[in-house]
Amino acid sequence: MLKGSLVALITPMEEDGSIDYSGLEKLIDFHVENQTDGIISVGTSGESATLDIDQQLEVIGKTVEMAAGRIPVIAGTGGNSTSEAVELTSRAAQLEVHACLLVVPYYNKPTQHGLYQHFEYIAETVDIPQILYNVPGRTALDMNNDTVADLSRIPNIVGIKDATGDISRVAEFVSRCGPDFALYSGDDATTLEFITAGGHGCISVTANVAPQLMHEMCIAAIAGDLARARELNNQLAPLHAALFLESNPIPAKWALYEMGYATKGIRLPLTAFSGKYHDQLRAAMAHAHVSAQII
Predict the structure, then answer these.
(1) pLDDT along the chain (295 residues), means of 10
(2) Does 271 reside within a domain?
(3) Is residue 109 in some structural domain?
(4) φ, ψ for residue 130 (rounded to 5)?
(5) Buried b (16+ CB within 10 A) or exposed e, 54-69
(6) Active-site annotation, residues
(7) Which of 36, 39, 85, 214 has a CA positioned 20 to 30 A from the CA of residue 188?
(8) pTM of the model
(9) What residues make up the domain containing 139?
């Protein structure tokens, strides 16, 4: 089980939308140096929705290659088509990723029984550890606790990223899913409370910009050093909010551009970060002791 701060890594792009692999290598080195506990490649923050299957797998493969065993890599391989999710997961498994992260199918709104069958089929078809991802704010569907508990009994479904922000769910996951089922917050603003309720860490947007602080905050919370964890979280709180002034990963990509770790590229229908928010995000970065000057 991975614990701590796992970054939902952006996919750096040139201004024409092509993937910036030199920038990707720089970002991976940045996270290794700043003690990030794992990388999620091509999740929501990595703009999976605008990459085709071959591009997704190329980015995942390059991430594994560039990480070179220094940091675990988890591949985002979910989709609203079960057959597509199977293909992505199967091909990612061949790239020797640590695990796969599979989002609740979006747009088509299956029943809870359909959700169970979707994840069960992928798990039975592809022999690799799999982490569920529940983010109803994006998928328009909430996977309920009964479904999570049922799925946790499948041996290679090993955890969940819960982005509901509902801390009351954590205790139920702990009691119903067992001690070996990994619990990750998908909501940076409530990660501290999530861990103190029994979680094991986070899959974080904020870690793109403040990886060392997120790592230290999570590790302090896991260790029960709540005074230290609260102190660090207070430094991070404005950044948690500012990185969602517009849809993720728009603000995170701009912040990394300011820091010198990414170019300006982003793919439509996402657009450049609005100028009216620049000062607010810069202030949040400064509060977290993150330099907003090109390095």
Answers:
(1) 97 96 97 98 95 97 98 97 97 97 96 98 98 96 98 98 97 96 98 98 98 98 98 98 98 96 94 97 96 55
(2) no
(3) yes
(4) -130, 135
(5) ebbbbbbbbbbebbee
(6) 133, 161
(7) 85
(8) 0.96
(9) 4-225
